[in-house]
Amino acid sequence: MEEVKLLGFWPSPFSHRVIWSLKLKGIKYEYIEEDVSNKSQLLLQSNPVHKKVPVLFHNGNSIAESTVILEFIEETWPENPLLPRDAYQRALARFWIKFGEDEGLIIHKFFVAIGGEREKAAKEILEVLKILEQQGLKENKFFGGNTIGLVDISYGWLAHWFLVTEEIVGVKVIEPSKLPLLHAWVKNFKDIPVIKDNLPDYEKLVVHMKSYYYKLLFEVVDL
Amino acid sequence: MEEVKLLGFWPSPFSHRVIWSLKLKGIKYEYIEEDVSNKSQLLLQSNPVHKKVPVLFHNGNSIAESTVILEFIEETWPENPLLPRDAYQRALARFWIKFGEDEGLIIHKFFVAIGGEREKAAKEILEVLKILEQQGLKENKFFGGNTIGLVDISYGWLAHWFLVTEEIVGVKVIEPSKLPLLHAWVKNFKDIPVIKDNLPDYEKLVVHMKSYYYKLLFEVVDL
């Protein structure tokens, strides 16, 4: 019998990448919630390098780093493919996943920016998201076409967590007037049943991210 | 007839990742040297997002980002595999490639550090390289075993460019007393004929990186 377990944390967009991929492929798995304030032996032993969720367990092996897990899932269960079959199209998908991993770091800047810095950070994010919209998404329903794939999954944080960030920070970036195609994508993405049914509760996420936000702000003030 | 072209820059470790992979697989290609001080239309059109080398051209398609190109090469020409066949072993390889991409950023800090900051940065790098050595490389000749693969190729900068950095900065990190296994790996890696025959000239690289170094230092002082 195949063993599939996922060690995750409920507000983590990275854990949700793995949840969505497994569910979209119809893979049964056991979910284990990690206590990130008191890290488990399971986490420390299975991801000694980063000590972070998500970690996927498959038949005794453990795999860390969400983008690495996504590729593993795709290779291990090729049914309901989440990457295109064509090597060039796959390369494009990986290019945009990497773009999100590299540029996503600016979100943190937006989150902790105060005063005038906030507008500046929002402008920077808008520029990055415009590139993503115009060169990555284009007029498509999903990244790469008409069906959901790993690029969409990797940008899941944008469709849900980023809206919470906008609410907390008090600046709206993904608006129809600024990013019409990306705004439509957020709806398309969240309309997929597996996504809709597997998102952390919005209000609960606001409370969680607010406490994180004030902690970060406090650290900034403390410097 | 298959078209394979590479747009690169002679001192770029990222361009060399692609060169090594193509040569290890015996793929014939045309090399085009980019003038990075006056970027070509070919570069601007083929990598409009980052405007950086390397860019691989294959039958009219262009692919950017060296780690994405490496995966494309592996999928397009599976002969002489550079990733393990087993999905879990592939995941491990991708984990260590990602580790280098993420943690490699600290090299820049080491490069521009002056005075006491330099020793501090060298200490940080040593900690990162110890993790790489003890958990990634272990007692193996190459990452993942007895033959060269994509992990080794992705760490090529460590085997050649980093030694130049050490010389310029004046601090040695990869020493037998500090990192015996990684020190041995540098030799194993550079002993592979395809690698040895396709490295930028050391003295030329010192001159190039020194001019870059002084430019960076000047910018730091200028702040």
From TrEMBL, chains A, B:
Arranged from A to Z, the UniProt key words for this protein are: Cytoplasm, Transferase
The enzyme's first-digit EC class, named in words, is transferase
Q: InterPro entries given for it?
A: Glutathione-S-Trfase_C-like, Glutathione-S-Trfase_C_sf, Glutathione_S-Trfase, Glutathione_S-Trfase_N, GST_C_Tau, Omega/Tau-like, Thioredoxin-like_sf
GO CC terms for this protein? cytosol
Q: What EC number(s) does its UniProt record assign?
A: 2.5.1.18
Query: Can you give the residue ranges of the GST N-terminal domain?
Result: 2-81
Which reaction(s) are listed as its catalytic activity?
RX + glutathione = an S-substituted glutathione + a halide anion + H(+)
Q: Name one GO molecular function term.
A: glutathione transferase activity
Looking at the record, the residues that make up the GST C-terminal domain are 86-213
Residues spanning the signal sequence: none
What GO biological process terms are annotated to this protein in UniProt? glutathione metabolic process
Entry function: Is involved in the conjugation of reduced glutathione to a wide number of exogenous and endogenous hydrophobic electrophiles.
The family classification in the record reads: Belongs to the GST superfamily.
Which PANTHER family does the UniProt record give? GLUTATHIONE S-TRANSFERASE U10 (PTHR11260:SF775), GLUTATHIONE S-TRANSFERASE, GST, SUPERFAMILY, GST DOMAIN CONTAINING (PTHR11260)
What protein name is recorded for this chain?
Glutathione S-transferase
Which organism's genome codes for this protein?
Quillaja saponaria (Soap bark tree)
